[in-house]
Amino acid sequence: MIIPVKKRIQIFDTTLRDGEQAPGASLTPEQKIILAGKLADLRVDVMEPGFPVSSPGDFAAVETISRNIQGVEICGFARAVKGDIDAAVRATRDAARRRIHLFISSSDIHLRHQLRMSRPEVVAVAREMTAYARQFCDVVEFTAMDAARTGIDDLIEMVEAVIEEGASIINLPDTVGYALPQEYGEMFRRVRLGARGGDKVIYSAHCHNDLGLAVANSLAAIEGGATQIEVTVNGVGERTGNCALEELVMALETRGDSIGAETGIVLDKLYDTSRMISGAMHFPIAFNKPVVGRNAFQHESGIHQDGLLKDRSTYEIMDPERLGIPRSMIILGKHSGRHALKDRAAKYGIALDSAELDALYESFKETADRQKAVSDDELLRMVSSTTGQQAQIYALGEVQVLAGSAPRRVAAVTVRHLQSGAETTQTSTGDGPLEAIIAAIGQGIAEDIRFDGLELHSLGSGGNAQAEAAVMVEWKDTKFRGTAIHHDIVMAAGIAYIAACNAALLSESEMPSPGSAVNS
Ligand code: MN
């Protein structure tokens, strides 16, 4: 039997260049340097950290990244203009491996209305600037901007010219997100077969998501012969953004046998990288975003929950733990069944007999009918009140947080240890009220549990708005998550933090939690 060899797809990350062009997403040079390290850990093959000529800060960021980030090729972005190329060459000078990436438009629309140049003029510039860049750098990537809207013969003419001058990577972008998968793939096939020297270069796709087709078009490009895909983390970028790194990688990971391609990305860093980029760019991730969205692995329907608890493969095509996402979090809501409830309680070390489960289920349904979701914290309180079982280690007592225009926010919090009845009141300050309450609670927890992040979402709007908080903590090298819903955003965060600490401490109390050490 012949085992087909999968094509290795090069992942070209442009989060720090095209991604940063998303409105409001700009990064400081210091942030870029930190994020570049994360992208290198994720093992992207090529990284485009900026547009050196565009600002002194971007130049400095590309220069520092070129000096310090190992194991990844660094790319300097440039218009097909000498000054841009000079800046890109200087900024990337100290990289162990580097390339210059220059671009000029190829479509009639751009030539006529933007460049105001004739086709022979544009081809001459492309040729001349490729030769110019090649004097300084062995690896030149050439982008025919708006390639997807360029006549195929015009495109082939330009590609032949730059290949002749030594460009070894040809990027054919769908700059405006207009192409359909079949025609985008076909463009690669025709250029690859039609251009003189076209069989000796690497082809690259760069897709925008205006019609929601960036990932589909990138996969079509792979079918058409592209072996490099330009992506951004979370799909950030101009307008609706670029092909999302995590979506493309997981499509190849999940369906690689059909596609015949694979990447070198370290999967279990995908989730953390996504969260970090989202935080640094202040760019929230939609709940229903594939792979990394809050709901990507949450199942509400009772039928789905039941199937999932019996065997994950019934309703999940990817294993969230492989992506570094805490074990599949089932949202408890009005569609949840007894099975899901019992399973969730068991994760906190609580065993319920059938009478207890019936009583809990009844009060759970009542709450679930009134609100969108039932948090772990509420569930544990229901367990306590319906069965008398002690389902919490710590509880929040009095909370007082001062928010407002004063420079520091102050929180005073009483934390109660339920078994011993011991109470401690702690005071702390922070730049914001959330920081203050988290610090105060942390002081009130005796065990050395590390706070590892907070996510807040708003549920509903107007008078009925509630905050949903999720807090991650780390305890003995394992991550735990607690959630809470409250009308007061600061209280939601505090209760979720306590719930996460309880999850961590309960995990070692009784029976090992089924399936995984990570509770939700
Ligand atoms: Mn772009």
UniProtKB/TrEMBL annotation:
Leader sequence segment: none
Pfam families found in the cross-reference section: HCS_D2, HMGL-like, LeuA_dimer
One GO MF term attached to the UniProt entry: 2-isopropylmalate synthase activity
Biological pathway: Amino-acid biosynthesis; L-leucine biosynthesis; L-leucine from 3-methyl-2-oxobutanoate: step 1/4
Enzyme class: transferase
Annotated ranges, domain Pyruvate carboxyltransferase: 9-271
Source domain of life: Bacteria
Keywords: Acyltransferase, Amino-acid biosynthesis, Branched-chain amino acid biosynthesis, Leucine biosynthesis, Manganese, Metal-binding, Transferase
EC number(s) reported in the record: 2.3.3.13
Gene3D superfamilies: 1.10.238.260, 3.30.160.270, Aldolase class I
Record has Kinase as a keyword: no
InterPro entries given in the database record: 2-IPM_HCS-like (IPR050073), 2-isopropylmalate_synth_dimer (IPR013709), AIPM/Hcit_synth_CS (IPR002034), Aldolase_TIM (IPR013785), LeuA/HCS_post-cat (IPR054691), LeuA_allosteric_dom_sf (IPR036230), LeuA_bact_synth (IPR005671), PYR_CT (IPR000891)
Family indicated by similarity: Belongs to the alpha-IPM synthase/homocitrate synthase family. LeuA type 1 subfamily.
NCBIfam families: leuA_bact, PRK00915.1-3
UniProt-recorded name of the protein: 2-isopropylmalate synthase
Organism of this sequence: Paenibacillus silagei
